[in-house]
UniProtKB/TrEMBL annotation:
<dbReference type="Pfam" id="PF00883">
    <property type="entry name" value="Peptidase_M17"/>
</dbReference>
<protein>
    <submittedName>
        <fullName>4562_t:CDS:1</fullName>
    </submittedName>
</protein>
<dbReference type="GO" id="GO:0070006">
    <property type="term" value="F:metalloaminopeptidase activity"/>
</dbReference>
<keyword id="KW-0378">Hydrolase</keyword>
<feature type="domain" description="Cytosol aminopeptidase">
    <location>
        <begin position="364"/>
        <end position="371"/>
    </location>
</feature>
<dbReference type="InterPro" id="IPR043472">
    <property type="entry name" value="Macro_dom-like"/>
</dbReference>
<comment type="similarity">
    <text>Belongs to the peptidase M17 family.</text>
</comment>
<dbReference type="Pfam" id="PF02789">
    <property type="entry name" value="Peptidase_M17_N"/>
</dbReference>
<dbReference type="InterPro" id="IPR000819">
    <property type="entry name" value="Peptidase_M17_C"/>
</dbReference>
<dbReference type="GO" id="GO:0030145">
    <property type="term" value="F:manganese ion binding"/>
</dbReference>
<dbReference type="GO" id="GO:0006508">
    <property type="term" value="P:proteolysis"/>
</dbReference>
<dbReference type="InterPro" id="IPR023042">
    <property type="entry name" value="Peptidase_M17_leu_NH2_pept"/>
</dbReference>
<dbReference type="InterPro" id="IPR011356">
    <property type="entry name" value="Leucine_aapep/pepB"/>
</dbReference>
<dbReference type="InterPro" id="IPR008283">
    <property type="entry name" value="Peptidase_M17_N"/>
</dbReference>
<keyword id="KW-0645">Protease</keyword>
<keyword id="KW-0031">Aminopeptidase</keyword>
<dbReference type="GO" id="GO:0005737">
    <property type="term" value="C:cytoplasm"/>
</dbReference>
Length: 533
């Protein structure tokens, strides 16, 4: 359902650009494949499902060739063999054998799920075969079929549609080789792996697209196209008039510096009971961040096309959860605009009033993400009263200095919410690290002589004070009042996830590709899928 019309651009639409994703069915006839990725343990054994598909004589030939090629069987080691399968068999003539290391299990013989998934992701080295000209690759489920499907799909992702045809990577398809292993009986299967990866690839695509081709309006168009036809999904596209009527002075202040019209994208997924409180997801959607009047240095400013990585991850997570048809209710809010310098742009020293009535002094126009999130968080939490609200934002460079590219930083008022997020991150190997959300950091944002709070606290503890700023806009009892009475109110579980450090990467190996990462999409999907609220 669309409450407001949006401008549809005919050139470089989602259908034009979005060709980076390899689609694949769960099962194909093994005769269809022209290449195979096969996992082998250090002792020379293969997965039971594969031994049913590959003749014993071919298995022995593979072992002999591994020995001749001086393969040690260590994890991640790859050897590519050609024409070693018998002519009468259905085994592809091109086989990439990847080392799985030693078989691992605990004293009870049980394999750790997180380890099995991550081994399969890395071992599904389909990129090796793509470089060898393979067009349709069979993938051994290896240690876990969900992980193998994720690894293959994530590893094949590429964003080169804007390049000339001769510079584009060849399009490759893949599918599962052999019958489904025992993990088919679990909640995570080959199909769920494809959905998780497709969602992250969508977030990658949104964030990687140049900002002139991913304006707020085009972002909305792409999300609508991706969600089209999914059950239990409603989409509301809001415009400037709606933001004015809702007194979103902070959001409007950032948007007015650009000629591109703002959009507030609101998505509802209704998979739970009608009276159940929703999970709320809020994503920062700055489609380009110049810094505004407090303009950024020109070096690396091009990467600021990805400053809507939080909004991209939220939209992609909701897509994945809707595809999975999880039995919960979700409301997602993504405020979208550009942060540009102009004669209309906000200036340092200006004061704006947010939707909840708090006045904000603008100390630095490059601290704009917290301004648009302030109104989005208050609107979402006050309108829908969610049991939990999680915002995702490329908010502070300081979080990257603290945690690098490994962890996304989580600031939360809830032990249970932290535990659930942490467990999800371990399963997906897209981890979180808990950072302090403490009232002391809020002193830094209350130094203004002319407004209730200021949008910039200085360098010291800047990621922590930014999280405290956002918490000021979560609807509910005042946290300071609770501290005075020593009574913890019944409040919304809140988590702010700062993803500035994990927004992009230079790594181009395994299932990681250079550029925008789409993180932590799979972790948010796993968190919402796994937990009942």
């Amino acid at each position: 359902m669309f409450r407001h019309a949006f401008r549809r651009l005919p050139y470089f639409s989602s259908k034009t650009l979005n060709r980076s994703f390899s689609t694949s069915k769960a099962r194909h006839a093994n005769t269809d494949y022209d290449a195979l990725v096969l996992g082998a343990y250090k002792d020379g054994s293969f997965a039971e499902t594969i031994t049913k598909e590959i003749p014993s004589s071919t298995q022995e030939t593979i072992r002999q060739n591994l020995k001749l090629s001086n393969a040690k069987g260590k994890f991640g080691e790859v050897r590519v063999f050609y024409g070693i399968a018998e002519e009468s068999s259905n085994v592809p003539k091109q086989i990439a054998v990847v080392g799985l290391g030693k078989k691992s299990s605990d004293e009870k013989g049980e394999v750790d799920l997180s380890e099995a998934l991550e081994k399969a992701r890395h071992a599904a080295c389909v990129r090796v075969l793509r470089e060898q000209g393979a067009k349709f690759i069979g993938v051994d489920p290896m240690t876990h079929e969900h992980g193998a499907a994720e690894g293959a799909s994530l590893g094949l992702y590429s964003y080169d549609s804007l390049k000339s045809k001769k510079n584009q990577r060849p399009e490759v398809k893949f599918g599962r080789y052999g019958e489904s292993p025992s993990s088919e009986l679990s909640e995570l299967t080959w199909e769920t792996g494809l959905i998780y990866a497709d969602a992250q690839n969508f977030a990658r695509y949104l964030a990687e697209t140049p900002s002139n081709l991913m304006t707020p309006s085009i972002f909305v168009e792409n999300v609508i196209s991706k969600l089209d036809g999914l059950k239990n999904v409603e989409i509301h596209v809001r415009d400037q008039g709606w933001a004015i009527n809702n007194n979103m002075g902070a959001f409007l202040a950032v948007a007015k510096g650009s000629t591109e019209p703002l959009r507030f994208l609101e998505i509802h997924y209704k998979g739970g009971k009608e009276d159940e409180k929703p999970l709320a997801l809020v994503g920062k959607g700055i489609t380009f961040d110049s810094g505004g009047i407090s303009i950024k240095p020109s070096q690396n400013m091009a990467a600021m096309k990805g400053d809507m990585g939080g909004g991209a991850a939220v939209a992609a997570s909701l897509y994945g959860l809707a595809k999975l048809q999880v039995p919960i209710n979700i409301v997602a809010s993504i405020p979208l605009c550009e942060n540009m310098p102009s004669g209309h742009a906000i200036k340092p020293g200006d004061v704006v009033k947010a939707m909840n009535g708090k006045s904000i002094e603008i100390d630095n126009t490059d601290a704009e993400g917290r301004l648009i999130l302030a109104d989005a968080i208050y609107y979402t939490s006050s309108t829908y009263k969610p049991h939990s609200l999680i915002d995702l934002a490329t908010l502070t460079g300081a979080i990257g200095i603290s945690l690098g590219e490994v962890y996304a930083g989580v600031f939360t008022n809830s032990e249970s919410l932290w535990t659930q997020l942490s467990n999800a991150g371990k399963t997906t190997h897209d981890p979180f690290w808990r950072m302090p959300l403490h009232p002391a950091y809020k002193k830094q944002i209350k130094k203004s002589t002319v407004a209730d709070i200021v949008n910039n606290s200085g360098r010291m503890g800047s990621s922590c004070s930014a999280a405290g700023f956002l918490e000021e806009f979560v609807y509910g009892d005042d946290i300071e009042k609770a501290a005075e009475t020593d009574v913890v109110p019944d409040k919304i579980r809140f988590a702010h996830i700062d993803i500035a450090g994990v927004m992009d990467t230079n790594d181009d190996s395994g299932y990681t590709t250079k550029g925008m990462t789409g993180r932590p999409t799979r972790s948010i999907i796993e968190f919402a899928r796994k937990n009942t609220f």
